[in-house]
Fold each of these.
Amino acid sequence: MQKFTTKIVDMMKSEGLFEWQGGPIILSQIENEFGPLEWDQGEPSKAYASWAANMAIALNTGVPWIMCKEDDAPDPIINTCNGFYCDWFSPNKPHKPTMWTEAWTAWYTGFGVPVPHRPVEDLAYGVAKFIQKGGSFVNYYMYHGGTNFGRTAGGPFVATSYDYDAPIDEYGLLREPKWGHLKELHRAIKLCEPALVAGDPIISSLGKAQKSSVFRSSTGACAAFLENKDKLSYARVSFSGMHYDLPPWSISILPDCKTTVFNTARVGSQISQMKMEWAGGLTWQSYNEEINSYSEEEAFTAVGLLEQINMTRDNTDYLWYTTYVDVAKNEQFLTSGKSPKLTVMSAGHALHVFVNGQLTGTVYGSVEDPKLTYTGSVKLWAGSNTISCLSIAVGLPNVGEHFETWNAGILGPVILYGLNEGRRDLTWQKWTYQVGLKGEAMSLHSLSGSSSVEWGEPVQKQPLTWYKVM
């Protein structure tokens, strides 16, 4: 870590990017949201955080160092807040500025869940509330949405879109009214600057759920923030001999302590909605990959079930689990017509089950519960039967403790019900493993690889199908 951090700092210095060099970098950050790990792991993590802080300071960036969500950040490191609201936050020393390094404009998009949206009225209220408390710095996360390409998205179940309902969307287009309303908020705060930087606010009650925060300078500058934290009801308040109407859950900003120039709940910006249109004139083709289309050199066999990430090393999202089941000719289900049932328990995140080359079912987990269980009837015949399970990892964990315990893949048990013997546990018999898909090995996703096979007319509802569009 020290080598990497030093490399980055040296690169920034060589390009003249720090503020004292005339560049745009005004802050340096070391680690990110490491505090929760300290709570979990105790002294070893505290020692690491202290080492990281001292290492960073020694690099002499010439700008302040910060640690996000690190309550005991050692001096001169500034501990900062990340969250939807940070008006509750104070740094661990009174001489440190109150900084909000991640004002969340929404949340990341997950597979299988609605696209998150945060109303700009609520976001503006959170920012104004932070400033009225004496906050000195706000950084939006995200202000410009983005896109993760290929397999670079986090997880589990994080989509490749990292739009975050940001003021600038992942296509680089302005999202209104979020962009315009925040622009007006920033303009109003800027008008308050002479009073804001002069000292702490004087707070007075204006009602049961209403208050004023007044900033004054020695030169006569005055700025006021009038808050109504009631979520349902409007409020009329009296301030400095005048009446002000405050919408629910809002703050009015008065740069001269008289005139309201902005209210967080009153949106005057134009509302715009993006309309997606179907792309026309495209030609679709498909290529069908065979099930278990691997050679002996590409596969390996082990007794029992193996954890997926340890096998794939995250070089692919796919791992084949294949085993064989011998069925005697005297099995009753062969004549009764009552098919056996197969149960497969997996740590996540998605699973396709094939029996004798035919897809018998698909199951997948969720953001809240990545674990899954497949249960379904299977068609077996007398003699040897092949059970192949394609396990799919939908991203690696992006936050949390003890990542080594966050498993993926089939860990069992795998049980076959409905045989003469009652149940047969397949967990500890021999399994053959194949890392990745054949199409990945052939680089079908690349321009050169896609030309190595013959593509045909697109097919529907066919498993293991690659699609190409031109």
Amino acid sequence: MNFRRVMMLVNLGNEYLKVIINTKGAEVTSIKNDQNIEYIWQADSNFWGRHAPILFPIVGRLKDDQYEYDGKKYSMGQHGFAREMEFSVTKRTNDAVTMQLKSNASTFEMYPFHFTLTISYLLSGSKLKAEISVTNDGQNEMLFSVGAHPAFNVPLDNLSEKDYSEYYINVFPQRTYKQVPFKAPYIDLNNVSDIDLSKLLQLKHEIFYDDAKVIKINDKKLICRLGNKNFDHGVEVEANKPEYAGLWSAKNAPFVCLEPWWGVADDINADGILAHKNGIKHLLSEQTYNTNYSIEIF
């Protein structure tokens, strides 16, 4: 695909945070606090060469990297194409920016819908708020999913010798959730099991050797906290009504992703029809879907 490669880095700041956002993919590439501690994974390609991509118009991988819509087959890579495309800046202040991606000739080759994807970032104290809006600009019902994939350094303090296993993830509400297993790169809905997140999940690299932990969410609000009992700094990701949460790291990598998803990868038994896809959203002509998440530093 002939993606435009022009990109710009947008700097936001207040008394608590300095944030950098790339117009390529509307991706957050840096969040530093007033002590200059970097919280976002710096895309070391030896492990994983991204920071915090926006996932659209699919989350995860399609079976055989293709789907069928209206009798025609389309090919699309993992997590969709938005993360590879240049967004335009439509509004900008010292502490906020709005970026937009509209359907075009390149997107139509992969995805036959007219759309506007708008990502708005706003600093509010020690929190970066992200608003995600999807508008159906076409005449037909639009099918899509959306998600966020922020990765955080572990250890958070890059000057320390603290070990990965000293960190924990705490999920709120604290309870037992349904875990959807991966038969990488697809999910297996026939073998859903329970995962007890009523207490801290201590990080170990081995947790992610079989890929992401995919959790089914049925709450209006999800909070995932990354912290260390003996360390002052942490991160909290809060999301509005996500259908799933993904916890992931590359093998033996010094980071972890806390991912709110409004959609999910194909099931191993998926029939490839986009309208049948698990977690797919249906949006009528000229309607807008809105959701949001935030990253708070403490």
Amino acid sequence: MQTSQAFTPPNRLLLGPGPSDAAPSVLTALSKPLLGHLDPAFIGMMEEIKSMLRQIFQTENEMTLPVSGTGSAGMEFCFVNLIEPGDDVVVCINGVFGMRM
């Protein structure tokens, strides 16, 4: 059985749209053991994040959640949360991603 060598990519300064460089604190956090989404420690951390988001957005809505996703996912989240059936919307198509709306 053949084994592969450890992957040690060179340090690079990433300046594109993604992936992007991660702060040293993020890299340290990523080296820690994982938590499941039902772990009490994870649930406590998520509740703290939700509380801080409610403060930032000045809302008491209990459904305020952090969501990880692409830019396209972000556009969709904005539309489904801000636009009501029957609302008029003007979409200016400029570039590749404008056609997605």
Amino acid sequence: MKKGLSIWILTFLMILLTACKENVPTEEEIIIPTCSYAFTMTKGEVIPVLSLDLPYSTTKGNIENFINPCKPEDINPLTLTDSSIRTHQMIFTFDAIYPLDSINIISNIELLSVEVSLDTISYDRILSNQTLTSEILDLGGTMAKAVKLVIPLSEDDLTVDDIRFKLDEGLIIQEDEDLTRQFLRYNGWTGADGIFTFNLTNGDETIGAEKSTVGFIFSDTFVGEVYSNNNLRKTSIMINNSLGYLDTSKPIDEAMSFEYGMAGITPVSPFISDAYIGLKARNLLDGDGLTISQSEYALLSNSSEGLSYRASSNQAEILIDLKNSEIVDKLVIWNDNSNPNMGAKDILISFSEDNMNFSTPIPYTLDKASGSSNEPYTLKIDDLHTDARYIKIELVSSYDQNVVGLGKLMIFNDEEEFLFGEITASPSVDTLMGNELTSRLWLQDGVVINNKLYIFPILVKDEGEAFKVHNVGLIETPIINERIRFEQANYYSTPLQVKTEDGGTIFFGAGLLNNVSRDGYIYIYGYKDLVGRHLVVGRFLPEDILNFNNWTYFNGDTFVKDINQVQGLISKVSPELSVTYMPSGMYEGKYMLTVMEDTTSGKISYAISDTPYGTFSAYINIYETNVSHLRGAFTYNAKLHPALSKPGEYIVSYNVNTTQVGALSDARIYYPRFIKIIEVKK
């Protein structure tokens, strides 16, 4: 009896389960079409979606199938049934940053908002509560790496048959992983910042120019070993600059090599600061230690740390070469203010056009300086009205029995314009003290002229817990067999760092543009720090690279000789940047400024101008860096590299560093990254 009852119950349950199964709707069979869709980066194409995330929604359907570019519009929909918040959020991520023409949406969605992101972290809302009256939502070229559709939750399920993104004209931004990988290294050169590049084959910086070797210069550089299993530094030494070379004939993974100096078995910087430190005569004409540069109203510091000239005997001779014959009208002299007892007393001044026949020396007597922290000039000589290329100053006697010194010297022509010159003098006292012992050169941009590379370094010294830039120099080094021969370098002083009367400071050398083939000039860019950082520009003829009295600076209307009149062209620039002539493409014939806005914002942007000196457009933000996975990391100093670029594909670098010194043991932090800017085909 029990056995028969059990069979009856089992039979009943089987019938019941069969009936229930017949009432459960079956999902549509997943169809993954096969096709040969090839994305060619042409305007109007559908942009492939890398991933789709619906973090809060309950869905039906296959997501991978839904984003397949080969999917027909009328099959494999997604159904959004519920959400843990008050909206559905559909987050579409692409493999690069694209200019979006439109979104094609086939669904029963009636209302949505659209947000876009360049870094997949922070989003900006570009459309809010948009009523869908059409299947096509115009985005007008908005740049995005990710798009978030925010859809209000409704009582009914939402069925999304198809969503596609169309490519607009403009620029695509890709991370250049192949090139970036060449700078994460495990032996020898293991990281640096301050990257600039040059065509070492022929010096032609035009995008697409022929070249066999691209030269690199870097600033602070790690040399040593790195563990490959965890990217931690095993051994390391930091030098202040280094070199690199890319052989364009080799595969990228074999193309890079690096170079630096060696002192025995110890790595050293190729370019050293010795020429710019100590109490050398070249200090006389620069503005270091003055409250205002190139002005007779400047006040001189009493610091003894490399601001003045001191000879190794109680008599000395100083010769200044102005490079041109100039009308010398005024000389302004500050005596030695760091140790007034060593200041010059009796001096003789004479002039010459040829460095052989000098005028009769004119005697002058200098008073002692007071040694105060803000010392006015000691002697002003007016109304000279003398034609001269060379000025000789003989320090005949001193207030000291053994040495003689001089603080600063300024020369002006009959137009009240400051004149700069190359100084030679009797041997100086070069005993280093204080922050002079921390001196180093960081390399700014440069230019190739007649098989020589000219680089504009900045002299940096420690200042408490930070550092201070003391002046801008100029290094001339030959290029031999497509290599930078730093051992044969010549070091020159420049007037390219200026403290202005309004409290600002101007630095030149942040970027250079060789525009000789178009207007005959080389343009040098810099920045003025005063309530922000503002782009400034000067220019010179190639033959005047060492003749600063022939350089001119843009005052907002025209180019003038007075560097103090320079006007800012655009703000928010970084201390390393680029201005590039665009020979073809969407900006053909124009000039592109590339920066990281506000130096460390992570926002890489560009602006466009019809000329090398503006007016520049508003910034267009194209990329936002993301190094949040690295301890204390930040990014800075973006620039475009013509020597690495080709028509329609432009290479931009940026640097990565950290606010936490201990984190530098992680070799993944401190080396340059690269992105590609690719023009959309039409």
